[in-house]
User: What shape does this take?
Amino acid sequence: MKKGTTESLWAIVLAAGKGSRMTGVTHLLCGEPRPKQFVPLVSDRTMLQETLDRLAPLIAAERTVVVVADGHEDLAREQLADRPGVEVIRQPRDL
Assistant: This one.
């Protein structure tokens, strides 16, 4: 593969953390406890959205997979609604 060529690359974004260590902070910011990847911490976009923003120039949405914990699939899909083609996969359980 030539330097700078990304046509064959895939991105797998692991966003399945439960967010238990930052529950107090995320509750204050969102009005409910959420894992930090679903919270806007440094801008008006969530950490998950910012990650996909950084990937977009390099890897097509159709070759991007986001893995989320059980119970957060709807939240991830809502936050990634502006990214058609990104696949969201629910992790069925923690191991």
Remarks:
- The beta strands are 11-15, 64-69, 87-91.
- The longest helix spans residues 47-55.
- The chain has a mean pLDDT of 90.
